[in-house]
Model the fold of this input.
Amino acid sequence: MSNEAAANGSRPFGVSIPALRDYGIYFALLVLIAFFSISVPEFRTWDNAILILLQVSVIGVIAVGMTFTIITAGIDLSVGSLLALAGILSGQFAQKDPTLLNMILAFAVPIGVGLIGGALNGAIIAGAGVNPLIVTLGTLTAYRGLVVWYRVNPIYDLQPYYRIVGQGTGFGLPIPVLILALVAVAAWIVLSFTRFGRYVYAVGGNREAARAAGINVEFVIFRVYVISGLCVGVAALMFTSRLMAAQAISGQGFELQAIAAAVVGGASLFGGRGKISNTIVGALIMGVLFNGFVMLDVSQPIQQMAVGIIIIVSVWLDGVLRNRRRKRRLRGRWALKGDGTGASSVPELGAGK
Amino acid sequence: MKASHIATLLAAGVVAAIAAPGARADDKLTIGVSYQNLAFPYVAALQKAAQNACKALGVTCIEADAVNDTNKELNNVESMLTKGINCLAFEAASLEASVASINAANKKGVPVVQFNGKAGGGDYVSFVGSAQTDSGAKLGQFLEGLYKKAGKPKLRGIYLRGVAGQVTDIARNDGLKSYLNSAGLGDKIEFVEQYADYDRGKGQAVAESLLTKDKSYDFIVANNDDMILGALQTVNQFGLKIPMAGVDGLPEALAAIKKGQLAATVFQDPEGQGGGGVWGCYLAIKGVKLPKDLLIPFTLVTPDNVDNFVAIADRVYVK
Amino acid sequence: MAAVLVHPVEAAAPTEERLVSLRGIAMRFGATRAVDGVDLDLDAGEIHGLIGENGAGKSTLMRVLAGFFDDYEGAIFIEGRETDIASPADARREGVALVHQELSLLPEFTVAENIFLGCEPGGVLPGTVSFARMRREAQRALSECGVSVDPAAKVESLSIAERQLVEIVKGVALAPRVLILDEPTSSLTIHEVQELFAILRRLALRGTAIVYISHKLDEIFAITDRVTVLRDGLKVATALTGEWTESTLVRAMVGRHLSALFPHVPSPPGTARLEIRGLMSRGAFGPVSFALRSGEILGLYGIIGAGRSELAMALFGLAPVDGGSILLDGDEALIRSAAAALRAGIAFVPEDRHRMGLAPMLSVSTNMSLSALPLLTTLGFVRRTAEQANVASLQRRLLLRARSPMQEAGSLSGGNQQKVVLGRALMPGPRILILDEPTRGIDVVAKAEVHGVIDSLAREGLCVLLISSEIPEILGMSDRILVMREGLIVGEAARGEATEELLVGLAAGARSVQ
Done:
């Protein structure tokens, strides 16, 4: 699914607009990596590279699910609270004696909780047609209240076998990194090659047009929230196992980090745009920043300011690139002679009398 | 609060209660208790201790949770005042903004006993809590012991801070640094500091990044147990052995000390603070004159004395 | 490019007699020159038609005059005085008003607020707005234009036609010296168009210069005094309206002869494939009954609000029905969703391609294959080669001009966008095609091409229901015409019998003819 624009026009810095939008973040990531590699020698070790992947794995998995909802012009703010709920319930089973049943439940329950939480979100958003921002804001609060009410004290003393998901390795890589890769590839395949993936983009691109094209819009919307919940369930398992503790207060702020990863990666909150690969790059950019700043001993408030600026710049850049297209009416060489008619779906504001 | 302290207060209280004119045994007193954020396990332990105290005293307690939001805190307190309470046991969520809640109680003439966190203003009868600088000093004590045993001219370690700008974090930092300075170790112990927001996951992530760069730290200390336990995961994963210490005295930390994974923690007494808040209110209602500050000391917990504290922790923490 | 000149191009020096003179206006977007050096004069009190193919530069030229761009080349003279119009505020100061083709109203605001957007009448205290005065003056402007819309109504509650009228009133309310109308009648009925013409003539009498951009040649001949033709960003010719004929105009626009605008050759229709019996939807239409035969183009005419689009949506499963039945090839069909309609072989091209037609940021190919995906999927995966083949063949058949099928659909011209929507409807291989205003707002060439496709589809045996408000289109393309009024069918006429007067009369409420 390519997002190329009919750019026969603007070429800032000699790079065409679609290239800038799609690949600009790869370039930004390389610049950051280069910068930190030069500033901190320990940064450019293989171990550190693996560490960065490990540290972005939980947010990365959540961001993959979030990309689906963002493409449909929706959003899922409840991911952090749902993660805590899934984690606590997983921890309860992981604390018990390591019988086969308990072990299976310790791994399966968080995924199930994620699916149910996501389905609840999806049912309300698709069924009642309520704004996703509001619904998931409500479930963010409700799920958090539920988990804190259910179990305020942390669960530790988890059985040693549980460690494997968050702290194990396979093929020389940490398991969470492998899980992130698996989830990302699966999501990419779905979005790029399946009918459902097309429908996700169509619903986000123009909901009424999708409906007129015969797509069951509500069912598509329901499913993307289930997917988001599933990703949260997997992330909860990874997170709890990594920490070897389940806490009711976990996950606060995760929704913003996941949204930031997707948005820095070029997903549009207005819908219809977003790529899994770019979301992963967005998550990596933030992971590299965090890791590099700690190594450079930069204080946390400055870290936060830097990340905030980067998010703002990415969204602004996306808006600028889109406005250039709309206002400047880039045209190909065929019958589109720059007349500016018929191409805009949003009337231009500021048009005088 | 040590058992002896409680016993003293109890004795004093019982005597005063009997001696107070017009006191009837079936007087139904109501104490309002406001917490800063029950999602924190330590605060939940305070709650358990306070509830135990309410039961023991036979008074009605109504509770409210500020959820770290001073606006909500004020609303809660005003509702409790409207319902009618005889005393307010108050755990301030913030230094400045919580003053409004205390002022509200003052206006209604309801006595206020603060516990654990002290707001920066308003009239209160007594503060039952611990001076957070003391906990920092105890950490300093731990490092002093470490320095003496290590025999090296200089020590270098990681210091995991809490939330930047938060009162307790600043107090613990101040306590730690001034203790070391007065012990003459100010320039002999070097810190690499990072904020980890009191969060276990962030403590783990920060430790990962720092330890990947350099595995030769002499110690890791943190302003709460959650962060040090997160760092402990990393240390174990990397197969290192580094002396580590936190603050709070969570049951998990005590267990880790018993297992030899954690070197020390600074025990904060939820029973003394939470229970003490309710007790203080009860005595204030009965007219007993209380000292303005009832400071409950912190204790440095090491493998030698850890068992004493496990019992207390079990009483108020849920496993 | 061969120029067809009727009169030599006038390039006299701007004098005070001409209200507006444009000299050497050029406007560039990146590497494309949308307008490439155009001279144009406007006289006070004249209605000046401006026509050209899509992409010829008409809208851009007028937008330069209306202050949309601050980086145009060339000079603008108002009453002989050179002036720089670099912002809408400048244009407003010079008395230039533009009525948009793409509606620029804010849906959440009321009609009055929209009319006075940016120049709200002040209230008692400085900086406040007097809503009462605004409503009064809006009412006055509306009444003067003969538009019966409540100034306090929110724009989102108005129909497209009403919005277009409000848009026009917005331009007129400023009492401008130059009023530019860009495709003002695409959503209006004949009656409303006449009203508009009356307003324009009154304005012209008062000395306003009016520029009338339109694709509709019959309107150009009806209302304008002079016509300028643009092609490829250059002026081809300017001449008095009386000196043009339809074919010379078209040839000037296109540079070549267009054989026919309505290339429909009627063929004997086949069996009835679609039968509607007593179909109704409370408050919208019905009960209506008619049959559609294979190979037949059935025109459906009526004024806006007659219920035609509602009927189309009900046939396609996008709107509920309260009674009646639909029979496909003799069997009753329950069509309760668009997916069900598609499965039954019904296809639909909606009236508003922006709202229900395209997802502008998705590619041409993705948009086109959307309805046909269930047929192009195996085990959940899209068969890309099959999809590409289908897209390519439809692109050829529809004469769709795009640099590549991966191009973003939103960057195409209106005509090509409409072809994408048509392609989307055709890809699943339907047997029944419902078209709702399929050539609205697209240029003459694209219109002819779309008509050609519709004709060939009918010859292949498709049943076509053509809903249109354009008399020439419906008369030229249909084998049979039904007229709807207030939700009911009030008349039917065969190809030879139907005339403009008959259709308009029936739609307006004259005695019904069966």
